[in-house]
């Protein structure tokens, strides 16, 4: 049987939930859809937010032959078969080609569309859950208008759930009801995916008697339906949110985003990101953080999920509440930029492996710091063209201030 999500798919813009920014009364996409000439369009956003539905509505209202391809299974011959129809009676008015998940077409496959897009034989509407600026061929992207479909709120999804219940009752000649809490469970757990919410509703409907209660709703939800594609944008956005929350010293947000990653079954990515944060964002303000986080990460990997959540939560909270410094990050970034630009090709000869330890009398002889008071003696270490370069600036925190005081102290004593 066709899933409920397909059976209740909206047939006009008024039935579509959410996306008011593009489908509202003055929304750009709604106005474009009613214009006599359609541009090529790319719909970008999470699953279940209405991309395919809107494409179907536009196609229905256009006097063009509609062809659909699902890029997850489409082959080059499938694309060529569609393109061949542009020269037939069916293509006289132009073809509207809808490609779902266009990111799965390789560059060569996408290139085959260009000529037909250029001369207007094909009007392209493509959908993707990935950032089109990374995954769609640039020539196609430059000839298309990109519309972002945003995640739906739980109230948006609730409207679809209630509409789905009405359809189910009409189909089955019944009058079942649903608790407000059950609607909330289905709407929130869907993660903004209408398809997931209404399909879960259908399961709850058939296992319930007269009323779908909260327990019935929960029983059909093994876990939050939110997408946890580890190669997708959402995954990297969660990792970014984790790092930015820790950098901003918000331990509550840090734990929340860590929980979302772990709930998706991912342990490796948060472990790696926490190790990076320890050096990039906490850094020299609390150097021991790197060692402590390494120990906690090792513990998490040894334990595995679900127990791994404990040491990883400890690491996230430790980093979020620790003092912050990115001085080491900025120093190495600046130094690497000079290396890329070709500076410092020849190091001072005193640093090369052709001098013996000792004070010496020669100008270029290496001076062994341990032979001097406080283990420091003035001498040039950087190449001549970089001798005045300063990569590291001491951070404004207790640890680095103490280090700066020590450095200044030994240098001032050496001058006396």
Annotate the secondary structure layout:
Elements: H1 4-7, H2 20-23, H3 28-33, E1 41-44, H4 51-61, E2 65-70, H5 76-84, E3 95-100, H6 107-111, H7 114-118, E4 122-128, H8 132-135, H9 138-142, E5 145-148, H10 154-172, E6 177-178, H11 180-189, H12 194-207, E7 211-212, H13 214-219, H14 233-247, H15 251-263, H16 268-282, H17 288-303, H18 309-321, H19 327-340, H20 398-414
- Name the overall outline: flat
How many distinct beta strands?
A: 7
Helix coverage percent: 40-55%
Mean pLDDT: 87
Reading the helices and strands in chain order gives HHHEHEHEHHEHHEHEHHEHHHHHHHH
Lateral arrangement of strands in the main beta sheet: 2-3-4-1-5
Low-confidence stretches: none
Distance between the termini: 91 Å
β-sheet strand percentage:
5-15%
- Rg over CA atoms: 30 Å
Number of helices in the DSSP assignment: 20
How would a crystallographer describe the biggest sheet? 5 strands, parallel
Structural category is: alpha/beta
Summary tags:
416 residues, alpha/beta, 5-stranded parallel beta sheet, 20 helices
Overview of this structure, please?
Helix 10 (154-172) packs across helix 11, helix 10 packs across helix 12 and helix 14 (233-247) runs antiparallel to helix 15 (251-263). The model has no long low-confidence stretch (mean pLDDT 87). The termini are far apart. The protein is built from 20 helices and 7 strands. By secondary structure, it is of the alpha/beta class. The protein has helices spanning 4-7, 20-23, 28-33, 51-61, 76-84, 107-111, 114-118, 132-135, 138-142, 154-172, 180-189, 194-207, 214-219, 233-247, 251-263, 268-282, 288-303, 309-321, 327-340, 398-414, and strands at 41-44, 65-70, 95-100, 122-128, 145-148, 177-178, 211-212.
């Amino acid at each position: 049987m066709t899933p409920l999500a397909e059976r209740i798919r909206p047939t006009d813009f008024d039935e579509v939930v959410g996306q008011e920014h593009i489908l509202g009364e003055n929304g750009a996409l709604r106005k474009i859809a009613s214009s006599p000439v359609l541009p090529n369009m790319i719909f970008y956003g999470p699953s279940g937010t209405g991309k395919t539905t809107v494409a179907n509505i536009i196609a229905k209202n256009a006097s063009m032959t509609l062809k659909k391809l699902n890029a997850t299974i489409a082959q080059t011959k499938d694309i060529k078969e569609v393109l061949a129809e542009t020269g037939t009676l069916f293509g006289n008015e132009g073809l509207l080609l809808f490609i779902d998940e266009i990111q799965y077409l390789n560059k060569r496959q996408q290139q085959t569309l260009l000529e037909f897009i250029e001369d207007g034989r094909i009007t392209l509407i493509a959908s993707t859950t990935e950032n089109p600026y990374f995954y769609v061929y640039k020539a196609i992207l430059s000839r298309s208008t990109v519309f972002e479909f945003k995640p739906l709120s739980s109230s948006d999804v609730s409207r679809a759930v209630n509409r789905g219940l009405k359809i189910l009752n009409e189909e089955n000649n019944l009058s079942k009801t649903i608790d407000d809490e059950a609607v909330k469970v289905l709407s929130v757990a869907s993660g903004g995916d209408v398809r997931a919410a209404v399909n879960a509703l259908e399961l709850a409907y058939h296992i319930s008697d007269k009323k779908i209660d909260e327990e019935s709703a929960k029983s059909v939800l093994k876990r939050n339906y939110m997408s946890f594609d580890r190669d997708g944008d959402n995954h990297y956005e969660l990792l970014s949110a984790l790092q930015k929350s820790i950098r901003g010293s918000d331990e509550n947000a840090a734990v929340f985003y860590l929980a979302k990653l772990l709930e998706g079954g991912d342990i490796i990515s948060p472990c790696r990101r926490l190790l990076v944060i320890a050096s990039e964002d906490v850094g020299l303000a609390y150097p021991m953080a790197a060692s402590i986080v390494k120990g906690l990460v090792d513990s998490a990997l040894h334990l595995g999920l679900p127990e791994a959540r404990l040491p990883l939560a400890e690491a996230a909270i430790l980093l979020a509440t620790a003092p912050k410094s990115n001085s080491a990050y900025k120093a190495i970034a600046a130094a690497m930029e000079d290396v890329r630009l070709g500076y410092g090709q020849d190091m001072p000869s005193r640093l090369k492996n052709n001098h013996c330890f000792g004070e010496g009398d020669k100008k270029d002889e290496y001076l062994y710091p341990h032979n001097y008071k406080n283990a420091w003696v003035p001498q040039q270490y950087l190449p001549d063209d970089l001798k005045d370069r300063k990569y590291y600036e001491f951070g404004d925190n207790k640890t680095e201030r103490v280090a700066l005081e020590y450095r200044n102290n030994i240098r001032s004593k050496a001058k006396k």
